[in-house]
Write a structure and sequence with these properties.
857 residues; alpha+beta; six-stranded mixed β-barrel
Length: 857
């Protein structure tokens, strides 16, 4: 074996062109596959960095964010989020868990600064967790201590745990952080510890990863201000994920059945509090116990389909690269068949010849795999930039581009298998050389040409490349359709300023005045035409929803879809967006606290609740039938695409309320919800011509109103939409790269085969030219041979491309999986690449001198 290795090194060094081409081909193919597998491993396969993750189980099988009101969940009644009261019920009645922890499904926006500091608050992400959270996961502190149950009781001193990343990056690993006082959202907290390096919590998400952990009961202090009702005190506010460590020997199916009974027991205790529709459905509610070693992997649910698609595409690239390797090895072996024949004639066993070729092939694959790790690292960094741009450069996603041990093992296995599987056939074929025929003269054949194996490999490469190119064309067109669809509002010259007034300790009675000042001050910025603060702007990623009750109508049925989104806005909102009022009027300055409560609805709302009726003057309310007369409809706006999901579905019903109006409910939960909706988080700015320095000017203007008003940033709507479609952009971009890579590799493969064919047919070409064939006829002959292979590849590839398009239908928007234009474009690109790849061998064939060819033949 050592002799074979030394001989392989010597042979590779003697053929630098062959070696370089083979290594580059393998590095690109293996590197692309490894880059995608790196993401697949970290997003879909990797466990949490905690003790014995296999013992963890999660109550719930869906990643829901971030609040779910009521005593029923989803159309299927599948509970995945729970209230604080429900969590405590499970914890008290389920001894099968050694520990059952709760964590906030979303994130808490925090304003943090050191006690005594006059600097602006540092905006950070927080997460409320139960006192036993760290103990349940088996996590130890890096310094200080972590929460206990005593820290998570009402009235306990406010404490926080800092993530290692923030402690290292923001505070320079200063040990004095532990025990120091901090102001968090205006309240004094003590940092009691720093979590271990690499620990990011029990959920993996593309945004809002926690910088600080706070006890659940701290929510009473932070979110219970300004008259709002804390979520912990509302049994129907579900905002917690539950994860627990199960005792050894407990059967998960038995435990799941018991948890379902406990859920029904808890729901039964709240039947008097339920709405009529909930009373019909509560007995149908259920839950599922699922493995919790990966935590609540929201990122997995979001990217699973896309990563599977990319892994298949990368696998296709690898197959094309492997076919190239096989073609190169086969061409090299056939070229050296005279030497091989001499060895066979001298008694060399065929097994040794096969082993010699295999060793060379596996060595190439191993070196290519090592180079592929570098390609994979660069590729993974590119993917991370494409996939997780939401939140800006400071957005932290706990995914590393550095290959882990499983990824390295995957690369090693892929390299070895590549070398063996795609090296054994060329090795076997070249070892089958007939010594007598080979020694008679390899170049005397006039019927030869490339072998059937080489041609078959080129055909397979062409078909695979067509599938990749067609997929890239479909996904690219789908992305363009998404980005340029009719959103129902104008995006040109529009901006969103992202603010958080809840961090400024404003009282409810101060909020309207604050936004009027913001409105007036921002209008003074040169180039700004209109300004309109809103609870959340279209396509901003947020969503507030309610069940609708229409005055004069009975309670809707339990299965009836009566949901609607809503937002609270300042006057001029629709004018700022450029949205058209199709009936009635917009929200104006005349809609004040002392006038009747009004609402503007969209066309979808009118169709859903007032079909074939004039909605103007009609009344509706939210949640309960007794509130059905709360709002009077004064206008209907053209449908606006508001949500960032369900883009293939019709626009959902939506209504807008004036910021100046507050409803006094007799239910504390409704009063709390109404108050919190007045803290508007977006400011829509219309500045035609895109004047420069918009963010700096907005920041200065807001600071002149209140230096403590938090501004996260100002983004143009083009950037906002780019973030909304970042996953689609990632998939389309990478599929295009894979398509181009597959096309180049296929062209290289075709070039190699045609060059070998021309070399083998030198004598035949010389005879033809001696008998009167001109150079044009020779070129046609070579091109005919090339396009016969490409033609077969197209015949195979077109049906395969249509089938692939159907498989990824859910990834497409506004384009059919069998779109003839996309297929034609892919076929044209492949044909042009084939023409370029075969042109050089064809010119070389046309330049053959008949006498020289016949003499050398």
């Amino acid at each position: 074996m050592l002799a074979d290795l030394r001989d392989a090194v010597r042979q590779l060094r003697k053929a630098p062109g062959f070696t370089t081409t083979a290594l580059l081909t393998l590095a690109l193919g293996i590197g692309a596959t490894t880059a995608i597998f790196t993401l697949v491993h970290q997003v879909m396969l990797k466990s949490l960095p905690v003790a014995k993750p296999g013992e963890l189980w999660r109550i719930g099988d869906k990643a829901r964010c971030c609040n779910w009101g009521g005593y029923t969940q989803g159309d299927d009644g599948d509970f995945a989020l729970f209230s604080w009261e429900a969590y405590r019920h499970f914890r008290e009645h389920t001894p099968e868990f050694t520990d059952l922890a709760a964590l906030q499904a979303g994130n808490a926006n925090l304003g943090v600064r050191r006690a005594g500091s006059q600097a602006p608050a540092d905006t950070r992400n927080g997460e409320y967790v139960s006192g036993n959270f760290f103990r349940t996961l088996g996590v130890q502190p890096w310094i200080g201590r972590l929460f206990t149950d005593e820290d998570d009781r009402e009235g306990a001193p406010p404490v926080a745990v800092m993530s290692y990343r923030i402690w290292h990056d923001k505070y320079g690993s200063d040990p004095s952080v532990v025990g120091a006082g901090y102001q968090i959202n205006g309240h004094p907290f003590t940092v009691i510890g720093v979590a271990a390096p690499g620990f990011f919590g029990a959920k993996l998400s593309g945004w809002g990863m926690p910088d600080f952990w706070l006890p659940l009961t701290a929510e009473l202090l932070i979110d219970g201000q300004n008259g709002e009702r804390p979520r912990l005190k509302n049994p129907q506010t579900n905002f917690l994920d539950l994860i627990g460590r199960v005792r050894p020997g407990v059967n998960p199916k038995t435990l799941e059945a018991k948890l379902k009974v406990e859920l029904h027991d808890w729901l039964a205790s709240h039947v008097p509090d339920m709405e009529p529709s909930e009373k019909e459905l509560w007995k149908q509610q259920t839950l599922h116990l699922t493995p919790g070693g990966a935590g609540t992997a929201a990122l997995r649910e979001q990217y699973e389909d896309g990563l599977k698609l990319l892994l298949v595409a990368a696998g296709c690239v690898l197959l094309v690269a492997c076919a190239n390797l096989a073609n190169l090895m086969l061409a090299r072996g056939l070229k050296d068949r005279a030497q091989t024949s001499i060895r066979v004639a001298l008694g060399a066993p065929r097994g040794r010849l096969i082993r010699k070729s295999l060793v060379e092939c596996v060595m190439l694959a191993a070196i290519g795999g090592a180079l592929g790790i570098g390609v994979a690292y660069a590729g993974t960094r590119l993917i991370l930039r494409l996939a997780f741009q939401t939140g800006g450069p400071n957005n932290y996603v706990p995914i590393s581009a550095t290959p882990s041990v499983p990824v390295l093992l995957f690369t090693l296995g892929t390299s070895v298998l590549t070398g063996i599987i795609f090296g054994i056939a060329p090795a076997w074929m070249t070892s089958r050389t007939d010594p007598v025929e080979a020694l008679r003269g390899a170049n005397r054949s006039v019927a030869g040409g490339g072998s059937w194996a080489q041609r078959s490999l080129v055909i397979a490469q062409a078909a695979m490349s067509l599938v990749l190119l067609s997929a890239a064309a479909l996904l690219g067109q789908s992305l363009r359709n998404l980005q340029h669809q009719n959103f129902g509002f104008e995006t040109q010259g529009r901006y969103i300023a992202w603010i958080n007034p809840s961090l400024g300790s404003y009282k409810p009675e101060q909020i309207e005045l604050l936004f009027r000042q913001i409105d007036d001050r921002l209008r003074q910025i040169p180039g700004v035409r209109m300004v309109a603060p809103a609870l959340y702007a279209p396509m901003s990623g947020d969503s507030w929803n309610d069940g609708i009750r229409v005055e004069g109508r009975p309670e809707p049925g339990a299965k009836e879809d009566n949901g609607s989104g809503f937002a609270r806005v300042m006057p001029g909102f629709f004018e700022t967006l450029g949205s058209k009022i199709v009936l009635g009027r917009s929200i104006t300055e005349e809609d004040t606290a002392s006038t009747r409560h009004v609402a503007v609805i969209n066309e979808a709302f009118a169709k859903r609740f007032f079909k074939d009726q004039n909605p103007i003057g009609q009344h509706f309310g939210e949640g309960k039938i007794k509130y059905s007369g709360t709002y009077e409809i004064v206008g209907v706006v053209r449908d606006i695409r508001y949500m960032t999901w369900g883009l293939k579905d019709p626009v959902r019903p939506m209504y807008w309320l004036p910021e100046a109006q507050t409803v006094q409910y007799d239910d504390p939960a409704y009063t709390s919800g109404d108050l919190s909706s007045h803290y508007l988080n977006n400011i829509v700015i219309w500045a035609p011509g895109d004047p420069p320095g918009m963010e700096d000017r907005v920041r200065k203007a807001l600071a002149s109103i209140d230096p403590n008003l938090v501004l996260y940033g100002v983004d143009s709507y083009s950037k906002v939409l780019s973030g909304d479609f970042q996953q689609e952009n990632m998939i389309a971009t990478l599929t295009t790269l894979f398509g181009v890579l597959g096309l180049v590799l296929a062209a290289v493969g075709l070039y190699g085969v045609m060059a070998y064919t021309v070399e083998q047919r030198n004598s035949e070409i010389g005879v033809r030219m001696a008998l009167g064939a001109d150079r044009g006829q020779v070129i046609k002959m070579v091109l005919r041979g090339a396009f016969s292979q490409i033609g077969i590849g197209l015949a195979i590839g077109i049906p395969a491309a249509i089938g692939a398009g159907k498989l990824m239908t859910h990834q497409l928007f506004g384009v059919k999986p069998w779109d003839p234009i996309m297929l034609a474009l892919a076929a044209l690109m492949l044909s042009l690449a084939a023409l370029l790849a075969s042109a050089i061998p064809a010119r070389r064939a046309a330049g053959v001198e008949p006498m020289v060819a016949l003499r050398n033949g």
